[in-house]
Automatic annotation (TrEMBL):
GO molecular function, one term: ligase activity
Domain of life: Eukaryota
This protein's record includes keyword Ligase: yes
Keywords per UniProt: Ligase
One Gene Ontology term, aspect cellular component: membrane
InterPro entries xrefs: RNF213
Descriptive protein name: RN213 ligase
Any one Gene Ontology BP term: negative regulation of non-canonical Wnt signaling pathway
Length: 80
């Protein structure tokens, strides 16, 4: 949710890191963003769960990768 919220606000995601145990927004706002970005017009709860699970794993792996660390790559992969 933290990434999707900042993405919609046009923030630079290259320098953002997930903040564990940080609560942002309301459950309704979270659900609305998931529905907006999941890519399915009328998703089931299982489809929403799969979308959030996949997105979470991708973002966690991205944060763990040295190649996605802006301090390491400098400006060579800006926006990647």
């Amino acid at each position: 949710f933290q990434y999707l919220k900042r993405f919609d606000q046009g923030c630079d995601l290259d320098t953002f890191w997930y903040e564990a145990l940080s609560v942002e927004g309301s459950p309704a706002e979270c659900l609305q963003l998931f529905l907006l970005h999941c890519g399915i017009v009328d998703p089931s709860w299982a489809e929403l769960r799969n979308f959030t699970w996949f997105l979470n794993i991708q973002l966690r792996d991205c944060e763990a990768s040295v190649f996605c660390n802006p301090d390491f790559v400098q400006d060579t992969l800006k926006g990647f």
